[in-house]
């Protein structure tokens, strides 16, 4: 097991993707601090790990406040004597279009995803630097943070912000031997289970059958377990040279996302006035960049009747 002797914190790991990450880290030998806001959910997650022969301890607390970050890191050291891996997965959704989004809708999502990632990484990185043996920071992003998505102003802002912070942390933590990366998962969740487009995939997963190849290959869409292997890899010594990256995974697909780079550059002596831009912008810039994700039509055999 590649993570023997390592200690990991996984926020938001009571269920879903976070639970899959925690279970895989434990399967690879790490002792895991499980985190959830619900005590029974956290206890069940711990039991799923310990019943399989792993080591796990729960911290029941909402991610966001500095106090929770300190509690998570302190528990790792008090229980297992060290900290090597942090996976920031905790999150909530408050989806609605811009003109209907309240301050609370925005602030709640930013607080858990963005501030929660910041406070947990700040505390973990501080203690890892003091420990002096390097470490692994793995933050969970989203295609929404890369491309945007209708009705997710708050979530898109948080997930894009996480990628920006990770690139900065990769620079700041390099000398301490601490890597920082973002994982961009595409997997079956409670949300996708309600969408008719994914019905055939959800049905297959519920039956314990392989998802159709259209989902796994063409869309890069799979189960939570399909994502967990990448998290464990990035947590291992094998990934010591991987840092500052945004890596997508889902189903049968692995992707390395590019960093933002200019796709067109033009120069004009004296600068770009309004008149010059009006005359030349389209010709100089060329094709504009697309936004949002688009999905191909479902094959006929995967169509499901809608109510």
Helix content: 40-55%
Shape: globular
CATH class: Alpha Beta
Question: What do we call the CATH homologous superfamily?
Answer: NAD(P)-binding Rossmann-like Domain
Query: Residue-averaged pLDDT, rounded?
Result: 95
For the structure shown, list the relevant keywords:
single chain; 307 residues; alpha/beta; Rossmann fold; 8-stranded mixed β-sheet; 10 helices; 43% helix; globular; Sc_DH/Rdtase_CS
Plain-language structure description:
There is one protein chain. The chain is of the alpha/beta class and 307 residues long. The protein has one domain (7-187, 223-257): Rossmann fold, CATH 3.40.50.720. The chain is 43% helix and 14% strand. It contains ten helices and eight strands. The chain has helices at residues 16-27, 39-50, 66-80, 103-131, 143-147, 153-172, 199-206, 213-218, 224-235, 274-285; strands at residues 7-10, 31-36, 55-60, 85-88, 135-140, 178-185, 246-250, 253-257. The chain is globular, with a radius of gyration of 21 Å. The chain starts with 6 loop residues before the first strand and ends in a 22-residue tail after the last helix. The mean pLDDT is 95. Keywords: Oxidoreductase.
Question: What's the topology here?
Answer:
Layout: E1 7-10, H1 16-27, E2 31-36, H2 39-50, E3 55-60, H3 66-80, E4 85-88, H4 103-131, E5 135-140, H5 143-147, H6 153-172, E6 178-185, H7 199-206, H8 213-218, H9 224-235, E7 246-250, E8 253-257, H10 274-285
Parallel strand pairs: 1-2, 1-4, 2-3, 4-5, 5-6, 6-7
Antiparallel strand pairs: 7-8
């Amino acid at each position: 097991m590649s993570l023997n002797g390592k200690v990991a914190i996984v926020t938001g790991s009571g269920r879903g993707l976070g639970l899959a990450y925690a279970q895989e880290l434990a399967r690879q030998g790490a002792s895991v601090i499980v985190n959830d806001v619900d005590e029974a959910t956290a206890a069940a997650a711990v039991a799923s790990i310990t019943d399989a022969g792993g080591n796990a301890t729960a911290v029941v607390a909402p991610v966001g406040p500095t106090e929770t970050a300190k509690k998570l890191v302190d528990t790792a050291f008090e229980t297992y004597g060290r900290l090597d891996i942090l996976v920031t997965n905790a999150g909530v959704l408050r989806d609605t279009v811009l003109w209907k989004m309240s301050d609370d809708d925005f602030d709640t999502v930013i607080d858990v995803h963005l501030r929660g990632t910041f406070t947990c990484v700040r505390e973990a990185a501080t203690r890892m630097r003091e420990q002096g043996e390097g470490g692994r920071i793995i933050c969970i992003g989203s295609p929404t943070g890369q491309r945007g998505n209708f009705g997710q102003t708050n979530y898109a802002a948080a997930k894009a912000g996480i990628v920006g912070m990770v690139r900065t942390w990769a620079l700041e933590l390099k000398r301490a031997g601490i890597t920082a990366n973002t994982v961009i998962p595409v997997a079956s969740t409670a949300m996708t289970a309600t969408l008719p487009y994914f019905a055939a995939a959800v049905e297959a997963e519920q039956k314990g059958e392989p998802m159709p190849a259209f989902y796994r290959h063409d869309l890069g869409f799979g189960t939570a377990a399909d994502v967990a292997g990448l998290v464990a890899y990035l947590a291992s010594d094998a990934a010591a040279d991987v840092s500052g990256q945004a890596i997508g995974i889902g189903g049968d697909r692995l992707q390395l996302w590019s960093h933002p780079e200019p796709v067109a550059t033009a120069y004009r002596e004296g600068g770009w006035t309004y008149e010059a831009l009006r005359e030349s912008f389209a010709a100089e810039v060329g094709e504009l960049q697309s936004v949002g994700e688009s999905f191909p039509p479902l094959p006929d055999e995967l169509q499901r009747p809608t109510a």
